[in-house]
Design a protein that fits this description.
There is one protein chain. The chain has a domain of about 80 residues. The chain is about 30% helix and about 35% strand. It has two helices and four strands. Strand 3 and strand 4 form a beta hairpin. It is elongated and about 70 Å long.
Length: about 120
């Protein structure tokens, strides 16, 4: 009976660790209720910016750079924008099957408007 109890405890711990590894990092891009001074942004000089980040899931079990790919893409997008006002954010997810796993890619596209 003790052997079954130990096995169950180890199995529950292993499953818990595997499930904990599958959580992604949420990002905050701002909220609709944030107030912006419209007079401080030049909406006539907008430019498109884009960024992407990918990760790989080896043998469908081992995540490599998967959980933080949204955050990495967002940081790259912000770096391209500099101090500009970022709006109209579009997020695209895709995956590609590889022989020993799957490549997951996050692509973000937005408009950046300079401040006056």
């Amino acid at each position: 009976m003790k052997t079954i109890s130990r096995f169950a405890t180890i199995a529950v711990a292993a499953v818990s660790l595997l499930l904990a590894a599958c959580s992604g990092t949420p990002i905050k891009t701002g909220t609709a209720d944030q107030q912006i001074d419209i007079d401080s942004v030049d909406f006539s000089k907008g430019r498109k910016i884009s960024a992407s980040a990918s990760g790989f899931q080896l043998l469908l079990l081992i995540p490599i750079n998967i959980n933080d790919r949204h955050e990495r893409a967002w940081q790259t997008l912000q770096g391209q924008a500099g101090g500009d006002y970022v709006t109209d954010i579009k997020v695209e997810e895709s995956w590609t099957y590889a022989f020993v796993g799957t490549v997951y890619k996050t692509r973000m596209e937005a408009m950046a408007y300079p401040r006056k």
